[in-house]
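Onboarding guide, step 5: your first structure request.
Type a short instruction followed by the sequence, for example:

Predict the 3D structure of this protein.
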Amino acid sequence: MADLIHLAIPAFLLLVLAEAIAGAVMHRDLYESKDAAASLTMGLGNVLVSLVGPTAGRESTRKTDCRVWQSGRKTHHEWKG
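The system replies with structure tokens like these:
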């Protein structure tokens, strides 16, 4: 199944276009280019991060075993790997 962000970007572009057309037809200022640019930048950034990988530029965080216990109201985690 395709990643949802890959489906969301084209849908977002179509909705932005529909909003701009509706605003022009109704003679109202509905479209904010700054908002669209910010949303597109965040979406594309998300895609780029997923391509590079979550552990790029830092040590691997892959662990093989986790022990969880509680003492009072605090939860503790111990990773073994």
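Each response can be followed by summary notes, for example: Helices lie at 4-25, 33-52.
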